[in-house]
Amino acid sequence: MEIQNRENDTFVSTDKLDRKWIDINIPCSAACPALTDIPGYIQAIKDGDHKTAYRINRMENILPGILGRVCDRPCEPACRHGWDELGDPVSICFLKRAAADYGMEPVNPKIKSNGKKICVIGAGPAGLTIANDLALKGYQVTILEQFDQPGGMLRYGIPQFRLPYDVVAEDVKSITDLGVTIKTNVRVGDVKEIVRLKKSYDAVILAGGCANSKQTNIPGIDSKGVYWGLDFLIAANREELNIPLEKVIVIGGGFTAVDCTRMSYRLGAKKITLAYRRTKDDMYVGTHELEVMEAEGINTIFLASPVDIVSNDEGIVTGVKFIHNSINEDRSITPIEGSEFITGADIVIFAVGQKADGKIAETESAELKNNFSIAGDFRNGSSTVIEAVADGRKVAREVHMQLSGIKGFQDTIHISEVKDTGRKRDYDFIPVQPMDTTPMRDRKIKNREVETGFSKEKSLVEAKRCYLCHYNFQIDISRCIYCLACIDVMPVDCIKMAKDIKVTEDGNLKYIETKKWSEVEAITIDNDKCIRCGNCVRACPVDCISISKYKLKMIEKK
Length: 558
Known about the structure:
This protein is an alpha/beta fold. The protein is 30% helix and 23% strand.
């Protein structure tokens, strides 16, 4: 292990093997685009310290209250607690929300101005993240937002029953409290305006998002009663949708499609159907979102593509003609000849994705490269909130490098020795805690939030389920007396007698498990199976098992 320096009782390492240890052994954090210290904030909640949990999230993913509600949770499928025979994943996202619900407090860093000015176009998650990170570096940041409130699709594209406006406002305020200025109702519509902005700012960053619906050319698409998904949601969120809804068909397989079905339910539709061209497992939403949608009575049709919008003589929608699909081995779709069918509808909503504004697509032209950057969905295409945050952080670092002259950024691993993790074997038997929700009888209230959050007590219980994978248990082979006391007390099969031990060039430990004493070369701990209970440490008579806590931090390279 290459040790760069030591801070108190913490070693700071730049060794690539220590960096890899984090990716391999903390799978939830590795799966998070923003690399959030998930076990760090969950342990804080377990200890009853929601303020520390909030600060960790606020520092690393910027928008804890928002992401605690609408993150697509890439961390949870990766959670070790959900691996085979280990139970259900920890409710990581709900715990993030609990950190914000019970630990949110003003961020009051000491910021020294560097005298440079930044203009960010777009106050969505990427733009807000860029503003946050550059403000903390001393830049004077101004955000130009085309809508009358900041937040972008957080404010206009996601319904309040999933993400209340006051939650967005609170997370935005924590950024403006850093000195960031947001000017609303300002639309930057072409390259000439960007060129003019470059004359007034040291850097201009376009983070306009994907606010335009992708469109399709199937026959009848111009019939009265056909809507594009994002337009439908924005109009509904702005109280500008005054149409009767009876039979609604929503076409699509992502979050916008699901939100359109649930919004239609709240607007009084009697029958709502979600149609998707692939299977349920192929949808771009999690199991949780589908369960909530189905609980509200929304029907589903899978493996069906629209081929025609059926309308009457007055051009008003009366239904949709679909064709059934089959899925090929390469996951491509083949329409099944002769399988067409018609489903009646008076409203049809196409929620088949979003795209960036084509009017300024030419912003990648050469004359804009100098001190001009593109970020978030505008650059990468429609993505998730946490992916937009992660890209915003990346672009902010790039801009800071250009304007400050630093060489770059470097990952450092902070490794501190501890005596105990505080985790008990009994915690393994705690079932996943259910989220409290608004009763079905009140779901028709359009803007009432459905998921009401964990109580503080329930968050403490759920946090105990975390395996705290940031702890590394190691056996000092030179001190081990092979008494097997650790093996006798292990509650799961995580400690092995090993032979033929090899360390590969990329740092992986390879060995063969053996039961024969004559072949034993070492006793080793399998981090994939270790539940961090500490039984082995307490049982060892020669104190040869140590516990280290690993934390990833990024620093500037001067």
